[in-house]
Amino acid sequence: MSPSVTDSYEQAASKLPFMSAQLREEFDPLKVVELAPNVRRITAPNPGMMTGPGTNTFIIGQHQLTVIDPGPAIEEHVHHIAEICDGKLQQILVTHTHPDHSPGTALLKQLTGAPVRASPVTLSRVYDETFTGFLPLNDGDRVENNEYAITVFHTPGHVANHLCFLLNDPQWLFAGDMVMDGATVVIAPPDGNMSDYMSSLRRLGTAPIESIAPAHGRLIGKPTSYLSSLVKHRLAREQKVIDRLKKLGSATIDTLLPVVYDDVPSALHPAAAMSLEAHLLKLVEEEQIVKDDQTDNWSLTGTG
Asked: How many helices and strands in the chain, by DSSP H and E?
């Protein structure tokens, strides 16, 4: 990568409180990290509060390669992926079309000629205008060759077109933004849906997964207990909503936010507000609360 890209990465990383020197070294965008004999990781130089050390691009296989999530449209990063693939790339899989995951796809396809596969689900807004001309992947599909097999899981919640990919050996789940090492992911309506997200977590908790490879951060072990803990965490958030509404009678998102997310730094509250809205909408679906559209106040069912 050019000095300007590596310099900007270092500048961005140095301003993030969680980016220790060890973490910067581990997720250096110049590195190709072999995680398993047929799994390599390259991290894009886009560290941030929402992306952690950066977006992980995974390369599966030795001779018949699959790339999962080319990441943002950073030319040096995408050229790096193409160079590592060295003419062996068979396909590009995309977990979802958020700006830090899919925009690098168009250039990688141009450089390699590899077909792109992703969910055909249409979102309410376009997050990546460059993402066109892909082959559809649906729940239960298998992508396989004589080196490995990948099973597709449609996992709506973070966004409606989200997919996860389960490799057969090792049995690792390439989870995109279903989970995030060291943090919880944002669920932003209308394309994010908390009911769907928790259903997807529960479903993945029953799958034969040895480890989770998230799009941001390190591998996550003990997946069954980890996924279960995320469900419990979300339910605990909802209980804080209910408890606060019992006390106040009714409240806006702005009133609920500092109480329900009192364990989250205030700098992250704008993102937390989106997840809070997703929780509230889930509780409305479950007929536990109602919203007054004139005042934007939320209250427990039957309290007015």
From this structure: 8, 15
Q: Specify the pLDDT at position 267.
A: 86
To the nearest 10°, the Cα dihedral for 230, 285, 159, 90? Answer: 90
Q: Which of 59, 95, 62 is nearest to 77 (CA)?
A: 59
* Tens-place pLDDT, residues 191-231: 999 999 999 999 999 999 999 999 999 999 999 999 999 99
Sheet containing 142-144: order of strands: 142-144, 149-154, 163-167, 172-176, 211-214
Mean model confidence pLDDT for the chain: 94
CA distance 64 to 72: 24
DSSP state of 153: E
Q: Look at residue 15 and tell me whether its pLDDT is greater than 90.
A: no
Q: Which residue spans within 86-137 are E strands per DSSP? A: 89-93, 116-118, 135-136
Residues 117, 296: Cα–Cα separation, whole Å: 40
Q: Which residues pair with 70 in a beta bridge?
A: none
78-87: which pairs have CB atoms within 8 A and are 24 or more residues apart? Answer: 78/104, 78/107, 78/108, 78/111, 79/107, 79/111, 80/1, 80/29, 80/30, 80/42, 81/42, 81/57, 81/108, 82/108, 82/111, 82/112, 84/32, 84/40, 84/42, 84/59, 85/59, 85/112, 87/112
- The phi and psi torsions of 205 (rounded to 5 degrees) equal -65, -15
Phi, then psi, of 281 in degrees rounded to 5: -65, -35
Give whole-number Cα distances, 122 to 109, 159, 160, 197, in Å: 21, 10, 8, 17
pLDDT at position 304 is: 45
The model's pTM is 0.94
Q: What is the DSSP string of 23-54?
A: HHHHT-TT--EEEETTEEEEE-S--BTTTBT-
DSSP-derived letter for residue 217 is S
